[in-house]
Write a structure and sequence with these properties.
six-stranded parallel β-sheet, Rossmann fold, homodimer, elongated, about 45% helix, about 15% strand, DNA-binding
DNA sequence: TCCGAAAAATTTATGCTTAAAATCGCCGTC
DNA sequence: GACGGCGATTTTAAGCATAAATTTTTCGGA
């Protein structure tokens, strides 16, 4: 007795609550999980006891009893991936989506495939997680294959080359559509000579973005924008944006004869590249929007570039996260493929009046 | 029997393993947890059975029995915080540190204090997490106070104003020392006229970095570097770096008389600012390192700025993460304060021969 | 007096581990 | 050659906090 009160108060269990309320343990459980079948008076009594004891349902015991893990795993992309602020935001959305589904997001770090698979097996077969979300899925990524082989549920953010035929679930923002929206946007503002500042084709997304550009230009009859030199693969970081823009515009100032071939709108594969392009424009005394239009992708904080705001394509990252979580919880088995449309956020970098 | 084999195989439990190996359940448990007290032959037999059944220890049941949560919570900073690649890396390190301590990192999203506290209570008193790591701790941050009030163990990345007197645990990289290292570094290369491109004083870290600059300049007798106008508070993002550098160097080209007052080295509060400064230098045809030295902070991927590498101060983020995890596991009660020294990574932006 | 629905309590089960008890083999000793 | 006892293994029993399924109690109305 004295020992009990002197020691730091043990966390209260259902038994304690039941005892204090003068009911059985099961009644307490019912109050929590099916309150409607418990008499009003009893319910009140139990609630009072719970409050007095600062009782919290033991999530671990609950998870054990239900044989249903409360966690969802996320394989955190290795640091060397392009420092992408978008993935930050996505992580946030993913955690929020888990919480909305009454789950929690558990991180595991990327490493060699074997070690990663062992960790995943421990977590999944150890009943700790319901499944995994993987992102930054590369064309030759071994992870989906290995996870599938082991019967571990997962959903991928981004497809590999197999597109809609892949035997596992994936969710993705419609990259081609997103770029097309950017092209339509500047075209609607009178631009006829565009250029696409792209990245290498390491991921399907990058391929899709370029594809979207080509399709949109074709559809709008912007043949000049498809000419050689108008589609460049610089890389997706800021420094390459600076360089690529300089190359594309350099011709305009040096070679007056070819000035008709100089683009008046730069469709960039990422906000980082777009920011780099804006830097180049500014250093030449050009005003983004008025002189040359610039669009980015992902609507990251980089779009607030000092006084100029960069028009950008915003992926429905919250919806993507929610879909991934849903797929793991509701369709752990069969494959389902989800393509979500993005939205365009116009800012001053495409505003001719700016 | 037929039902059992036709249905998807239930995950094997210890009982199944024990049965197959012809031993008691306890022996299986011993093989896992105290292999040395179990006879060689038995151990082999049990291991074989485990392998055959693809047995995994049920982490949830184990955690319940041990009354010891396997998770550590991390309050994911809200997205609007300055998109900091360093925090990305830190998150990675934190997840790795948890894994090294046989724990997993669980994320919860930032939101209103009340909602956040409820979530923390559910997780901690629900035996799901052993405690929390919080980061981006502001001067008037309510979170440490509230957590402490509720008796929830936590460790903060970054102190508030109270410094070493605070009643809760924190870990931090020695920001003043880091900047001092940068100052020493450029001073050793002959620079006498420095400038500090800082941010506002929203967090103690930013105050410390400026403090480190002042102290170091004082110590080295670089009085000019402490003059008015040599310490600016631009902000910590790239765009403000571009502007601040332009302001600082602008005087040099316009006002030849005052050129002795123009700095030859820019000590920047972050890599983003440093990258901005490099952009300004490049746009004026100046070579970083040879003409003007530039240093950053946090050693993020931004330091690879095209052909020029930016000298940067690298925080011991892995060690910081490990300390935070240790504090939560080993010292959930008492406060302990840890200040870890950073390292300098020299690159071409401070190389006069560059 | 008894029926039947609603409310509450029992029983059983989840998968694991600590502590205590039981088993086994082996050796020296008388 | 049987006994006691020791040490090394292994097993039994108990319990962690919860919840589903089952049983018991309660109580108003016929």
């Amino acid at each position: 007795m004295s020992g009990k009160s002197s020691a730091a108060r043990r966390k209260a269990s259902m038994t304690d609550v039941a005892e204090l309320a003068g009911v059985s343990v099961m009644t307490v459980s019912n109050v929590i999980n099916r309150p409607q079948i418990v008499a009003e008076a009893t319910r009140t009594k139990v609630h009072a006891a719970m409050r007095e004891l600062r009782y919290r349902n033991n999530l671990v015991a609950r998870s054990l009893r239900l044989a249903q893990p409360r966690q969802i795993g996320y394989v955190l992309p290795a640091q060397d991936a392009v420092g992408n602020q978008y993935m930050d935001a996505f992580l946030h959305d993913l955690a929020a989506a888990c919480q909305a589904a009454d789950r929690n997001l558990t991180l595991i770090t990327e490493r060699g495939t074997d070690a990663l698979m062992t960790a995943c097996e421990d977590l999944y077969f150890g009943q700790s997680v319901a499944g995994f979300v993987i992102s930054n899925v590369g064309t030759e990524d071994p992870r989906p294959v290995e996870l599938r082989k082991r019967g571990i549920p997962f959903a991928a953010y981004g497809r590999t080359g197999e597109a809609f035929a892949s035997p596992w679930s994936w969710v993705e923002g419609d990259a081609a559509l997103g770029i097309a929206m950017a092209v339509d946007h500047v075209a609607a503002r009178g631009h006829r000579e565009l250029a696409f500042v792209g990245a290498d084709h390491a991921s399907v997304t990058m391929v899709q973005r370029e594809h979207g550009y080509r399709e949109a230009c074709l559809r709008l009859g912007l043949d000049g924008s498809l000419a050689a030199g108008r589609i460049v693969h610089s890389g997706s970081d800021l420094a390459s944006g600076v360089r690529a823009a300089a190359d594309l515009l350099g011709a305009a100032t040096n070679d007056t004869a070819a000035s008709s071939a100089a683009p008046t709108a730069l469709i960039c594969v990422s906000d980082q590249v777009a920011a780099g392009a804006v830097i180049t424009l500014q250093s030449r005394g050009l005003v983004p929007g008025r002189d040359v239009a610039v669009t980015g992708y992902d609507d990251t904080p980089l779009t607030s570039f000092g006084p100029v705001g960069i028009t950008s394509v915003r992926q429905a990252s919250a919806a993507i996260a929610a879909e991934l979580v849903r797929l793991i919880i509701d369709r752990p088995g069969g494959p389902e493929h989800v393509l979500l449309p993005p939205r365009l956020t116009p800012r001053s970098s495409t505003d001719r009046a700016a």
